[in-house]
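Q: Got a minute? One more chain.
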Amino acid sequence: QVQLVESGGGLVQPGGSLRLSCAASSLEYAAIGWFRQAPGKEREGVSCISSRDGATWYKDSMKGRFTISRDDANNTVYLQMNSLAPEDSGVYYCAAEIGWPMVPFASAWRAPAIYSVDYWGKGTLVTVSS
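A: Always. Here it is, folded:
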């Protein structure tokens, strides 16, 4: 079991920045990252990072604005979010997967309706509004 605890959400003005943190109870996962769910919308993959080789994946609309990183010494993953817009608002969930043979990296983030992660945090709310 891996427990995940998010922090860092809050209210920010359009164009602003936030850094989310996810503290993991262990490093027993193959990939870890973030999903978000806006009101009335399905949960979508935002970004993830491989624990094996540091490979990263970003949803297209986040490329160039969001950066995921990990601090293995502190079992923490970060999501730096810049140039935030109102459509970035939602609950951001940290999630991790243990990895399965024949399932490509980031599959659960690319296609959450088909693949699933193994562990979820409880989420942190991000509100982008003036």
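A: The radius of gyration is 14 Å.
Q: Perfect, thanks.
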